[in-house]
Amino acid sequence: MTSPSTGPKPGPGPAGAPGRGRRPGLRPGAPAGLRTRWWVGWAFAAPALAAYAVFVLWPMVLTAQYSLYQWNGIGPSTWVGLDNYGRVFTDPELLDTILNAIRLIVFFSVIPVLLGLAIAATIRRIAASRLAVVARTVVFVPQVIPLVAAGITWSWLLSSDGLVNQLLSAIGLGGVTRAWLGDLSTALPAVGVIGAWVQLGLCTLLLLAGMSRIDPALYEAARLDGAGPLREFFSVTVPSLRQEIGVCVTVTVISALASFDIIYISTQGGPGNSTMVPGLEIFYQAFSDREIGVASALAVVLMALVLLCVLPVQRLTRERP
Amino acid sequence: MTRSISRREAALGFLAIAGTLAVGCGGPGGGGSRPSGTSPSPSAAPTIGTEPVTLKAYFETGFPLARALTDEFTRQFPNVTWDIREDQFAVITQNAPRVLADDPPDLMRLPQVSELVGDGLLLNLDGYAEVFGWSDWPPSQLEQLRVGEGGRPRGEGSLYAMGLNFSMTGVFYNRTLAERIGMAAPPATLAEFDDLLASAKAAGIVPIVQFNGGATGGFAFPLQNLMAAYGAAGPINDWIFQKPGVTIDTPSNLAAVRHLQEWIEAGYFDADANAMEYAQMMSTFMAGDALLMFNGDWESGNLDGEMPGEVGFFLMPPAEEGGPVATMSAPLTYGISANAAHPDEAAFFLDWAATDERAREIVVEVGGSHPMGLPDAHMPDVAEDSVTGQTLAAGARIAEDDGAMDFIANATGSVYAKGWTPQLQRLFAGDQDPDGLLAAVQSEYEIEAGS
């Protein structure tokens, strides 16, 4: 639903660029001819559409089909109707994974977007100084580091004698130190912190780009009306960033609900299933338990859940005409 | 001319296609024509011959034994070349059915075999066992590789896989730290073992480093050793082999889980256990940061190389002095695909690994474990004091006491991931009690064994 091709605005892409060795005068009649032959557009889109159909639509259809069978991936399958869906909603183990994913939204989405807004606003105010460049780089670095490396680094940072606990002990909080990824009650938040750290850079950069687009006259007008920095932020910056915030929320909510990599690297769903999420559970169901039907049903439910969360966000943040 | 397709139409279309597929075309899979339990019945032991042959093999990354053996094999039989693919064991576990079905190797490292046999993916080796004389070996070596019709129970029935060696588990200890707390000899009883842990703790040494993080609950090692100290090995094996009517939830196993819980509460394990992977455990132990580690003899060669003279090994002591000892011991499992192109040559290789003198030396020197085969077959000289020497000696003791058990983690395809691992992690976190742990594992086991 976030297809980039839906925007009707013509961009300054290569198609509109004149020159480049191709003289339009050579084929004067071409544009008019193209307009009349309706299938030419489809012909251009066909390779992409074919790839999309084969690699996206067809697997989706197959997943929906598999979800109605009990199948181990090799032998014969048995038609079970909606039983697999029944299991997804009644088996507490499977249901908990969905709840964990929803909890992760706080860390993967809410915190990065709020913090990203604050950081972007701060960086914009100091845009002229060299510190702004440094800050931008530092915040964006997690997006560049391979997730595997980040996961390993964080598991050392969060271990019982890791940097996090050393810092806590140094400021007199030795009582709360623990193996953060190994504790049933802190593992999910600890994984969430890693996610927040990764997503923050993306949000900050997107929001910063959005801010550079805001007409300075708006700020000037606000200041003339006596607005302070806080009032400026809430009355000018945030409303102007509606679209960017929408993109940030959409992307991060999807990454929270469909999370796999960060968790697979840091905890693999443990300890005691406390960080198990649907993405990982689907993987285990399909490849360890060889329950292709249940895995597919959970995948379909996850897709529906993602759409259910993302569509309202899209509607809410759509720019009003 | 142009007509846009609305979302509702698209969704309806999608549903229509899915529905047609689901109802009209029948279910996925179900080729079903694969003959289950095909068994070659050679009249004489196959030979390698002189024709050029390329054997397709699928091995486990990180364990050099299989490649060392294939190199030696090609040296002895130059007409045989190898097409080898390697993956991590977890990857092999996840892909085994697909690979065996779609791209059948002649020789493959295998995970637990029940389900593969149930799907008719493995070659029945009974015929080869007859002509090569594997049936004369101690039955316990091949027991875990025998599977009943349709994949259940395990431990009896036809032979569907072979070992390159059989590995054994126990307790590795750091000699320097052991000396510091005055350990003169390995503990002879469970009570002495407890005392050893207590004195390590009192001396400020981490008594046990054991991985229990992520998807691999390594506390299954000490737990199963405790189970065997409190009860007999037989019923535990019966449970693992899915014999009907057997439960893991027994009084002696409960006592074992309680004992493990006491160790946890006494702080005998590294505090990071629930966040620790296998590799971290190895690096902690090799850095000299813990007294003990429950692990297997596949690390013997590694420890001999990295910490020569520094590491000792003993078997988990029984509850009473002089009682029988038991521990987990399993063949390094290899099998032949039901659709393999060269099953005779692959079977010849498996027999050669257990009978050829040079092959047996490689199995001990590179693999660190005991070769398969007859008890009086050739054995290389190993320094008694080395870790390899100690684990081989311990293996002989286990054979004497008939104390070999399969791993409780191998009972069903996912009882480890869905039962033992989360439950042992919760036990360590103080979030589960011993009764609850056994009940939860048993119920997970029944879901799978019953399906």
Automatic annotation (TrEMBL), chain A:
UniProt-listed CDD domains: TM_PBP2 (cd06261)
Gene3D superfamilies given in the database record: MetI-like
Entry membrane topology: Multi-pass membrane protein
Transmembrane among keywords: yes
Keywords from the UniProt entry: Cell membrane, Membrane, Transmembrane, Transmembrane helix, Transport
Transmembrane segments: 39-61, 101-121, 133-157, 187-209, 245-266, 292-313
Name used for this protein in its record: Sugar ABC transporter permease
All residue ranges annotated as the ABC transmembrane type-1 domain in the record: 98-313
Major localization class: membrane
SUPFAM superfamilies: MetI-like
Family (UniProt): Belongs to the binding-protein-dependent transport system permease family.
GO cellular component: plasma membrane
Region (Disordered) location: 1-26
UniProtKB/TrEMBL annotation, chain B:
Biased amino acid composition, Low complexity: 35-49
Pfam families: SBP_bac_1 (PF01547)
Database matches in InterPro entries: Bact_solute-bd_prot1, SBP
Region named Disordered: 28-49
Full protein name: Extracellular solute-binding protein
Organism: Streptomyces hainanensis
